[in-house]
Amino acid sequence: MAGKEIKVAGEENITSVLHEDRLFKPSEAFSSQAHVKSRQDYDRLYRKAEKDPEGFWGELAKDLHWFKPWEKVLQWKAPFAKWFVGGSINVSYNCLDRHLKTWRKNKAAIIWESEQGESRTLTFQTLHREVCKFANVLKDQGLKKGDRVVIYMPMIPELSIAMLACARIGATHSIIFGGFSASAIKDRINDAEAKLVVTADGGFRKGSVVTLKDKVDEALKETPSVERMIVVQRTQSPVTMQENRDFWWHDLMSTASADCKATPLNSEHPLFILYTSGTTGKPKGVVHTTAGYLLGTTVTSKWIFDLKDTDTYWCTADIGWITGHSYIIYGILSNGVTSLMYEGVPTYPHPGRFWEIVEKYRVNIFYTAPTAIRALTKFGEKWPKKYDLSSLRLLGTVGEPINPEAWMWYHRVIGKEQCPIVDTWWQTETGGIMITPLPGAIPTKPGSATLPFPGIAIDVVNREGKPVPADVGGYLVVKRPWPSMIRTVWRNPDRYKLTYWSDIPGVYFTGDGARRDKDGYVWVMGRVDDVINVSGHRLGTMEVESALVSHSKVAEAAVVGRPDEIKGTGIAAFVTLEGGQKPTEAFKKTLKAHVSKEIGAIARPDDIRFTDFLPKTRSGKIMRRLLRDIAAGRESVGDITTLEDYTVLAKLRQEDDA
Ligand code: PRX
User: Fold this and answer.
1) Domain holding 605: CATH number?
2) Domain CATH for 192
3) Which residues pair with 314 in a beta bridge?
């Protein structure tokens, strides 16, 4: 294995993570029982989908429950897609009601484990009951089909109940990750014009209480659209309830009827909006609709996680991110499979917590982020060795490229060299997994997401949209619409067009650089735009910059990513100060806290450097590449001929040495 520099056609160099030759084949025992059993089976499916994509997806869609079948599989007026046109369907019905007619009615749908080790099990029947009740609560509060509901909650079963209840009546949910600040909540509520917010008094994190309702209270001072707030009591933290606006979940649920038919919804009805970072300071509301999203997540869940009725499946993501939407709730429940939901973090109260839970529930399929694996690797093998992990049969990763060392540890220490690993590449916008091994069919190479899912047409191209040869870096694009794709940016179709369908002619641009090796395996090299991936979560550098300059003592700020052993990427900020403000250590702390307050702790810069000038081109563009080199402690090798003032570079370096 050797490090290798891969050139991206027409762009600055991007260093590919590695050149990796090891190949891991699934065992005969795994392949023979898998949904997709061999490379030949995969090739057959792939070719079938290429020949007739609409026929391929249409056939699979027949396995869902429809109130009314569709008339046309796809209506494509580039770049706007409508899938299963004319059909009528409900996601909550597909995740719940249809299993009630089978033996699964008393099967565990959600097994929830709290941080402190309490457990709650909701069967399909009991979950259905709670969802129906909460759907009636929403209706009683005046919620109608198409209204938006913001959900800001800890990882407790009520979060799943709330989202499925929205889906049941056609209210569009927008879940905000519990780590976001009041200011981030406000922006999202206002963009979505939400009518109602569901929250909790607080949540538990690493043994402490994190308050949540107070952040919503703060946000609601400037959100004219919100009429009601429903509050789950989780931590018993003191809260102020505003009369006629705020209601306790348990009060409303105590009188709610458990009878609520799922509303038949148009295939293209917006199921949810999920905000994600882009290259501007303002997050985008990614819109996913009903039928296509459900189909995409259902089929990918089944084939990639090789789901069987006997499985206990655990995805460790937070439901506040797309991974939790698609692969804790919708795709898994729609398959009638038991989904484990964990409230806490990997390392609390001890670094064996994940493995303790695997043992406790005999987890069969485990899906997590490379960041978590890297963090746990640090604590050594003694932690996983304390627990019985023999129930595991399949492992997965998501969110960022996984380095081969972490992959090998996962394979050896967790999977005991018996479990295939599915490295799944996808995005908030893609709704479901796009590039991945099918575990019984595709031999894996550590660090590669391998091959496209059948029906997904990806390519690696140059700026002009021309495919690049094997082992040459380029832009990762999708050439054809797919069912679970983003439909638009909420109330901003122009931004949708501009962001995804304009940079490279005729295709969806992912924002990622990648290369394909001679076997056609995809190696994702990371973002090529001003987006960084911190612990598997996407952040726009512009967002952090906007937060920094919103401080009255900051004149200018540039934010770049730099390598971080655990998080993948750390956040480095270069800041110029307003006259009068001294560049002190104390002020660095103030600024870090300021960013946490503006966006959330996830965006808190790891390093702040004060500088008198930022390196700019003659046209005034900040030269981020230089800053990236400096932040990473690299000698800059790139072209600096466009640098306006060479002395800036030397000064920044001096600052580094200081
Ligand atoms: O850069 C890619 C990286 O995460 C980005 C998508 O981030 P987000 O929308 O927050 O969704 C994360 C969870 C789906 C991608 O553009 N990414 C995601 N999965 C992988 C990955 N990079 C490499 N390998 C992956 N498996």
Assistant:
1) 3.30.300.30
2) 3.40.50.12780
3) 340, 366
Q: Which atom of ligand 1 is nearest to 397's Cα?
A: 26
Asked if pLDDT for residue 14 goes beyond 50, the answer is no
- 426 alpha carbon to ligand 1 midpoint, in Å? 5
Q: What dihedral angle (degrees, nearest 10) is formed by the CA atoms of 137, 140, 142, 143?
A: 30
For residue 232, what are the domain limits? 91-271
Task: Encode pLDDT of 497-527 as tens digits.
Answer: 999 999 999 999 999 999 999 999 999 998 8
H helix intervals, 443-513: 493-500
Residue with CA at minimum distance from ligand 1 atom 11: 427
Cα torsion at 82, 88, 91, 93 (round to 10°)?
Answer: -170
DSSP string across 47-99: HHHHH-HHHHHHHHHTTS--SB--SEEEEEETTEEEEEET-EE-HHIIIIIHH
**What's the mean pLDDT in 87-106?**
98
Same domain, 316 and 406: yes
Which residue has better confidence, 1 or 637?
A: 637
Q: Quick one: 507 and 594 in the same domain? A: no
Query: Does the pLDDT of residue 7 top 80, yes or no?
Result: no
Residue 644 lies in a domain: yes
Residue nearest to atom 8 of ligand 1 (CA): 427
Spell out which residues line ligand 1, taking CB within 6 angstroms: 276, 322-323, 398-401, 423-428, 449, 510-512, 524, 526-527, 533, 537-538
Is residue 118 domain-shared with residue 257, that is, in the same domain?
Answer: yes
Assess whether 144 and 47 both reside in one domain: no
Where does a domain end: 482, 505, 527? 527
DSSP single-letter state for residue 220: G
In a domain, residue 288? The reply is no
**pLDDT above 70: percentage of residues in the chain:** 94
Same domain, 322 and 423: yes
- Confidence grade of residue 624 (pLDDT, cut at 50, 70, 90): confident
pLDDT digits (tens, 9 = 90+) for 550-608: 999 999 999 999 999 999 999 999 999 998 899 999 999 999 999 999 999 999 999 99
89 vs 42: CA distance, rounded Å: 29
Do 193 and 141 fall into the same domain? yes
Please tell me the pTM assigned to this model.
Answer: 0.93
Identify which of 425, 475, 539 to mutate to test ligand 1's pocket (most ligand atoms within 8 A of the CB): 425
